[in-house]
Structure formats: C-alpha cells, structure tokens
Amino acid sequence: MVFFSRMDFSQGNLFGYIEDLQELTIIERPVRRSLKTPEEIERLTVDEELNDIERAVYLLSSGQDIQGTSVVANLPVLMRQNPAETLRRVLPKIREVLHVAGVEMQLTAAVSFLTVLQDESVSIHTYSHSFLHIILQNLEHRDAGVSNAWLETLLAVIEALPKETIRHEILNPLVSKAQISQSLQSRLVSCKIMGKLAYKFEAHIVKREILPLVKSLCQDVEYEVRTCMCRQLEHIAQGIGTELTKTVVLPELVELARDEGSSVRLAAFETIVNLLDMFDADDRSQTVLPLVKSFCEKSFKADESILVSLSFHLGKLCNGLYGIFTPEQHLRFLEFYKKLSTLGLQQENGHNDNQLQLQTLEQEKKYISVRKNCAYNFPAMIVFVDPKNFHLELYSIFFCLCHDPEVPVRYTMAISFYEVAKLLNSGVYTIHKELVTLLQDESLEVLDALVGHLPEILELMTTNGGENSGSESKLLSIPDLIPALTTAEQRAATSLKWRTHEKLLQKYACLPHIISSDQIYYRFLHRMLTIILTNNVLPVQKAAARTLCVYLRYNRKQEQRHEVIQKLIEQLGQGKSYWNRLRFLDTCEFIMELFSKSFFCKYFFLPVLELTHDPVANVRMKLCYLLPKVKSTLKIPSDKHLLQQLELCIRKLLCQEKDKDVLTIVKRTVLELDRMDISLDAEQLEKEKQQSEGRSTNVNDKIFEKKRRDNKTSSVLAKSMTLSVSGSSSGTSAGKEDKKSKLVRSQSFSTQALHPKYSNIDKCPNKSSATGYTSSVSGMGKSCMLSFTDDTFRTRSTGNSGNATFPSSSSLTTSRNSFNSADQKNNGNKESQSRKMSIKNRKSNP
C-alpha cells in the first residue's frame, strides 16, 4: 500500500518517481505487442454450435498447435463422456498429428494416455488395440525427454496388459530393437523394458527369451547401455529367483564391477549391495567380499567417483556381511568408516600445509557428502560394533560428527540422534553432552531436526540415565539441559522461522516428566506467559498457551497455581489489548481440555462470562463460539448458580447486542445450547433423594397413625377407588404440565432481539414447577405414598437431563426448593379426601 501522506514531493524525489513511471511504461510495451491481432483472433475462433467431438476433430485438423495440445490434454474427459466416438474420430486424428507434433504436445499426449489407462474408461483389450501402437511408435523419439515420457507410460501399461499381448506386441519386437545395429536410444529403451518384463513371465521363459538379450546388452560397446542394463539386473534377479541369479546375474555383475567406465562400476556396486540378501554365505565370502574390499581400497586412490556411494551403502554392507567377517576384517571396515567420517577435516598422508594443494570446490562438496552419509549410517555402525562397545569404538566419531563444521552433517546427526539413543538404551547417558551441543547449535535447521523427537530422547535420558536416573534427581543425568533448552527457545524466538519456534514450544510440554516442578515454574512457565503476551505470531501464542496449561496441570503447589491463575485472569482476561483477551479464551479452551470440569468452573467460568461485556465485537463473537464448551463443564445441581449466570449473560447478549454478526452467532449458539444435555451430579442427587425420603417417611408415619385411629373399618374397595381418583387427577395435571412445557419450547425466534422464552425465565418455572409437583403428588393413598414420591422425583430429574433447556433447568431448581410446601399441601388434601370417602362408605353400609 502507498501512503501519499508520507511521500516526499521535493524536486530530487520527484525525478525518481518519474523514472519509476517510465520503467513501468517500458515494462508494459512488450505486453501490448504480444496481444493477438484481429486476424489471429479470427483464426482461433471456433463455431459454438459444434459439439465436443466435432470441435476436437476440427481443432486437430485445422487449428493451431496450442489448440491441438488442448484437445490432447482433454482426451481423458472425452473418453469418459463418449468413448465410442472418441476412439472412432478423435484418436485417429491425434495419431496423425503426433507424427509432426512438437515436444509440448508429445509430453501432453503421454500423460493423457496414462490417465486414460488409470481412469479405466475402456477395457484393457480395447486400450491395447487403440493406444498401445501409438505409444510404441513414439518410444524412439529424437528428444530424450519425450522418449522417457512415453517409456514411463509403456511401463505402466505393461502392468495391466495380459501376457499374450505383451509377448506379441512388446517382447517379440524387443529382440530386434536390442540389437547392436539399432540406435543408442532404442537399446536404452530395450534395457528398461526388459527389467519390467522379468516380473511378468515365468523363470524359464525369462531364461530362454530375455536373459540372452540381457547378456548381449551387458557387453554393449556403449557405456550408457551397459550402465542402464546393470541397473536393471536387480529387477531381473528378483524376477528369476535365487538359482538363476547365482549362475547368470552374479557373474555379469562381477564383470561389470571391473568395467573401464566409472559409471558402470558404480552401477554394479550399488546393484550388488541391493541384491545382498539373495546371495548365500559362500557367494558373499568368495565373491562379494573381495569385490567390496577392492572398491574400498581403490576409492581413495584411483576411483574417487565411487566414494560417495560407498559411504552411503557402508552401513548396509557391514551388517549384510557381518556373519562372514573375521576379527581382522571387522576392524578394517570399522577403521575405514572412521576415516570416511573425518574425510576433508584433517591432513592426509602426513603432508604439511605447504605440500597440500588447495582443494577444489567439487572435492569439498564430495567430502561433505561423504561425512553426511557417515552420519546417516551411524546407527547401523552402532549395531555393527555392538552398543556395549560404543564408548570405546565410536564415541570419538560421534563427537566429531556432532561438532562437524558443516550444517548438513550436523543436521543428519540431529535426525538420527533418537535412533542412536534407542540403540544405546542404558548407555544413553554417555551422549548427553552432544544433546546439549545440538540444542545450542547456531543453525535452526539442526535444532528443528533434533526437536522432532526431543520428548522421546529426554525420556530415554531420564529413565536410562545410569546411576543418576530417578524421579528425585532428574536433573543430575543432564546437568546442562535447562540452560540449553532456554537458549534454544530464545534463539528460535528471535529468528524469523516461527514454525520452528511453534514446534519447539509444543515439544516443551514434555518437561513436567523430565525436570522438577520448581524448575519449570521459575525457568519456563513465566516465559510461556511472556510469549503469549508479547509474541505476534498466533500459532506460536497458542502453542505457548497450551504448554503453559500443561505446566499448570502438573504443578502441585497451590501458591504457584493461584499466582499463575491470577496472572492469566488479570493480564489476559482483563488485559487492555483485545488480542490478549482473545488469547485468554484460547487458554480457557486448553484448560477445559486438560483439567477437570470442576477446576474450570471454580477459577475460570465467571471470568469467561465477564467477556460478554467486552467492547470489541471479535471478543464477544469468539466467546459465543466457546459457550457450548463452557456449558458442558456444568453439573446439575451443584453448578446451578453458574447455570443461572450463563442464562443471564445470554439474555443480556440477546437484549443488548448491537453488532449484527455477533447477534447472529448468539442466536445460533442459543439454539445449540438448548439442544445440549447437562450432566447430572450423581452424588448430589443421591443426597437430595435421601433427604427427601427422610422427610416423606416422617410425614407419612404421622398421617398413617392419625388415619388408623379415625378409619379402622375402611375397606379395600375404598382404597382402590382412592388410588384411581388420585391417578386420574395426577394424570390430568401432568398432561397440562406437558402441554405447557411443549408450548414454551415451540416458541421460536421472532424479529425482536429477545426470545420470549428467556423474557419469562424468572416467572414461568416457579409456577409450573409448583403446580407440577402438587398435581403429581396429590390424591395418593397411604400405602403407596412413599414409592410414588420417589418415582416422581426420579422422572422429573431424568426429564430435565434429557431436555436441558434453560426454563426446564430453572424449573428443576425452583421445584426442589418448593418441595416441602408442596408436601404439606398434598398431605392436607389427602386427609380431607380420605375423610369424605370414609363418610360415603358408612352411609352405603348402614
């Protein structure tokens, strides 16, 4: 954005602005020249009435190259829509155009043909009949990129083709294409095809028809062909099995390993390493081991081209040949690895600085790659020497690699550090200094690589820390850990790589399992709060907030806990910046995830609700999104006062909110809250039930004694009549109550801001609850008084749990408070009713 108020229109700057405008004009001119002329636009115009097939045929016949390329790219779509017409009319045109097409259309066609195969738009028989010939015709294109693209398509097609089609369409022509008289490109393509065909046919067919061609190409006069065929011997060996590999493939590899071309020798060496599992012990000891020793001896002298590959595969070689090594050979390969690990860092052969020639840039890059490969193979070398011998045999090399001057080497060591720690197990305490060194590394790439498994590494350090391991002396096993961790965090915070900082803060959540609570409180917890307050990157702030909540979760000192909670409420929840108040809501969300519901309700419920009065709409909006989670922390009846506060805040939002977006979210949130279930506090309910049972029992005992004195001659019929009358009266009153509650719930939002249900929330529940309890209990006989009261209470509680709307919650609260008065009224009604029934009985039975 350009702020004109800050622009300086002095004479010197004005000329600068004019020059800038002139440069923009110069840049714009080529754009104008590249616009299409009316004649060109006319040639590019196509009749709109043509359908897709007709348009494709027209563009391939008389359109420009870019239009034809577009049609070829759209071929998979045409095949899905109308395969029959596309095969009959469009594909022949594409075949004609490809003879003279440019590189772009050729590459597009190769991709489109592969897509048609993957989409399975046609059967494989139809595909091989229509598309396979076009693919084979373009395999030997003069452009190497085009040829490779068609070859990749063909290799994918071979996977799906039946054997007979492969034999007639591919294998038979391959015999002539692989001859020495053919072009170099043709022979290279033949090599790659044969590597693929070895998987498709049985071993005897491969031996009879393919292996003679393989031997011929291994002896080709061009080193590119020999290299390519050598690379394919791995696939051929896996296709023909162990026996033929030993008698046919291994001799060819031995001969190619002595080839005059360095690329051929390199290909032979890597193929031997990859096929090591297919050779038996005799082949390894008599054939493979001498070859490997020869490669190692020549790598420093005559054949440095193989040095990088040898260092990369050395770990696999040492462990693959482990069983056949003599102690002397074992020591020789270990010394060779140590020499590679320090290659380029020290003077060789006793020469001094005056005698040494300056290393070229190529050599330096090669040596860095060698040391990087040695770092990659370090875990394999630990297995090779046995973890018990690590300190004696490999610790010095481990130290050198962790302190290597090149970042790629240290980066690789940081990645493999966790594997090294796992292998050392109880001896992991020997590498704690290197852990501290990598944590303090000046390169953030190294730190980022190490942090990925930092929790697992620290856990291994503390649980397998030798004599010093234990919960009471966690820090003794890694004495410099805390300064290293704080230094790493500060370096990440001052850099521009916020993702590394975020990752680091997330991993620091493991520290309560590693170091003491006091160390976390004084060195890390307040730092997390500072990051939340001062950092400008939202993911970093959220990571710090969650880690702070984890620290608070494992802090058992009440004074420290209360101090942190107070700071969170004062500096975040009541902070001057709305950004801090937003982060307070994020922190509360993490607290609800990590802590118990009662903890959140005790310390954070009311501070969260206070944000309903926040002057910034974004804060109120975020609070509305959080309210369903807030309500889910409540338990009824112990948190009924908090529920009332929540309802009051929602009513105020509905009445007073002026922002349209916030009001819309408030209404949506209210609907979601209305559908939510509030969890019941089972222990509290049981206590209340027991108390109500005790009161009911005392009242019923008094009534029973009084009626026993007055009505000694009452009959069973009168009792049954009393029960029926009371049942009908209670059913009638319950039905009215159900209708009343349904009427309240059926009211929806009108154009006004306040929902009718919430405007009467203080009046309706008291009346309905008292009426419901009175009608449900009145008219009961003395024999079933206690059980009916129990069932009524249980039914009401369950109903409130299932339909946790705000009126029903309030009615549950007020109904419990008015339970005693309802009982007294019910008892009076029952006594008068029973007296009337007894008078009637006396008159009917004189």
From TrEMBL:
It is found in: Cytoplasm. HEAT repeats lie at residues 210-247, 249-287. Residues 837-846 have a biased composition (Basic residues). GO terms for cellular component: cytosol; protein serine/threonine phosphatase complex. Residues 720-733, 808-821 have a biased composition (Low complexity). It comes from the Eukaryota. Transmembrane segments: none annotated. Keywords: Coiled coil, Cytoplasm, Phosphoprotein, Repeat. The keyword Phosphoprotein applies. Residues 685-751, 757-776, 794-846 are annotated as: Disordered. InterPro entries: ARM-like, ARM-type_fold, HEAT_type_2, PPP4R4. Residues 702-712 have a biased composition (Basic and acidic residues). GO terms for molecular function: protein phosphatase regulator activity. Residues 766-776, 795-807, 822-831 have a biased composition (Polar residues). Putative regulatory subunit of serine/threonine-protein phosphatase 4. PANTHER family: PROTEIN PHOSPHATASE 4 REGULATORY SUBUNIT 4 PPP4R4, SERINE_THREONINE-PROTEIN PHOSPHATASE 4 REGULATORY SUBUNIT 4. Serine/threonine-protein phosphatase 4 (PP4) occurs in different assemblies of the catalytic and one or more regulatory subunits. Component of the PP4 complex PPP4C-PPP4R4. This is Serine/threonine-protein phosphatase 4 regulatory subunit 4.
